């Protein structure tokens, strides 16, 4: 029951930060993904999407800030939005807002591995494969920079600072941003704090591309496809129950509506089935926790109680 927590602590101090746009989550920053309960050296990142026509489209990023890996992001360079960010929730506190940053290595692998303020990055390739500040500023009346890994799920200022990178943001109306925070982020955080061992758990949260785009310019030339505006937002968590050896999990899927954000509670398995369909995944079923956290390790009674508690905290 305590292995998940102990394993994470050992791994945080055991991995060396060496470059951030990586070839493999498993090799570079596996600590943010759930481990096999019987072997803490085996981790299960969510499905890494592939595009047969554009093999360089999706990039795995170990998000580095002040020489410490803070979380992991699968980034879509075509849509200029993240597919998902995966992190380890271990508490929260109020933090200050800071300036937004970008990932230098997305545009030029010869640049430094740390996220950086856009103005400090000098390369003619800047913004070719990612969103820039001006993209959101020019559409500020319509869209905010919606955190994928929320800054409200961090327990110190450095961790919060690391969430302020445009590789961790999607276009989101202010109304949807507020609704997602209230209906999902706050309630999931409360559930983890109240029911998970030591108040910690693994979280994966992301967005599904839509058919609309924010128009952008590069070198004063309009880009055919700018920054994608997602149609769906989703998140899932998995943790050890604080009173039993069971794994506890939950998930949410939201759709942009004509008026209000439509949020639905899901099991992890249900959300994986939805994402398999929504992403049109050519590799097969979309997976978030390597087949764990789907309720199979719980007794039917315990699973029913867990879902009852989810209903209490998410309505």
Note down, in words, how this protein is organized:
- This protein is α+β, with helices and mostly antiparallel strands.
- It has a single domain, classed as Extracellular Endonuclease, subunit A (Extracellular Endonuclease, Chain A, 3-Layer(aba) Sandwich), CATH 3.40.570.10.
- The protein is about 25% helix and about 30% strand.
- It contains eight helices and 18 strands.
- The strands form six sheets. It has an eight-stranded antiparallel sheet with strand order 1-4-5-6-11-16-17-18, sandwiched between helices. A two-stranded antiparallel sheet has the order 2-3.
- A hairpin with a 2-residue loop joins strand 2 and strand 3.
Please give a quick description of this structure.
This protein is α+β, with helices and mostly antiparallel strands. The chain has helices at residues 3-14, 25-28, 104-107, 133-137, 157-163, 174-195, 268-279, 300-313, and strands at 21-22, 35-36, 39-43, 58-65, 68-76, 81-89, 101-102, 116-117, 144-147, 169-172, 201-208, 212-214, 217-218, 221-222, 227-229, 232-240, 247-255, 262-266.
């Amino acid at each position: 029951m305590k292995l998940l927590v102990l394993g994470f602590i050992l791994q945080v101090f055991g991995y060396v930060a060496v470059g951030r746009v990586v070839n493999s989550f498993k090799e570079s920053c596996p600590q943010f993904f759930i481990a096999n309960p019987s072997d803490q050296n085996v981790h299960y990142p969510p499905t890494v999407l592939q595009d047969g026509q554009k093999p360089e489209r999706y990039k795995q990023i170990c998000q580095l800030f002040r020489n410490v890996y803070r979380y992991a992001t699968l980034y879509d360079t075509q849509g200029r939005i993240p597919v998902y960010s995966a992190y380890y929730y271990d508490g929260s506190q109020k933090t200050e807002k800071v300036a937004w940053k970008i990932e230098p290595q997305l545009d030029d692998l010869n640049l430094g591995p740390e996220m950086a303020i856009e103005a400090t990055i000098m390369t003619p390739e800047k913004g070719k494969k990612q969103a820039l500040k001006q993209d959101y500023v020019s559409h500020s009346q319509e869209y905010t920079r919606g955190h994928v890994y929320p800054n409200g799920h961090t327990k110190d200022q450095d961790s919060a600072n690391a969430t302020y990178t445009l590789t961790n943001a999607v276009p989101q109306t202010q109304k949807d941003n507020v609704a997602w925070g209230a209906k999902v982020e706050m309630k999931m955080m409360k559930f983890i704090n109240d029911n998970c061992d030591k108040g910690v758990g693994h979280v994966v949260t992301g967005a599904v591309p839509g058919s609309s785009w924010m128009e952008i310019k590069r070198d004063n030339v309009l880009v055919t496809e700018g920054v994608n505006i997602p149609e769906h937002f989703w998140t899932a968590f998995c943790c050890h129950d604080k009173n039993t050896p069971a794994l506890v999990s939950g998930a949410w899927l939201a759709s942009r509506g004509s008026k209000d954000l439509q949020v639905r509670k899901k099991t992890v398995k249900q959300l994986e089935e939805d994402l398999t369909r929504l992403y049109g995944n050519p590799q097969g079923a979309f997976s978030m926790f390597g087949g764990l956290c789907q309720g199979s390790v719980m007794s039917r009674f315990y699973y029913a109680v867990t879902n009852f508690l989810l209903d209490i905290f998410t309505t």
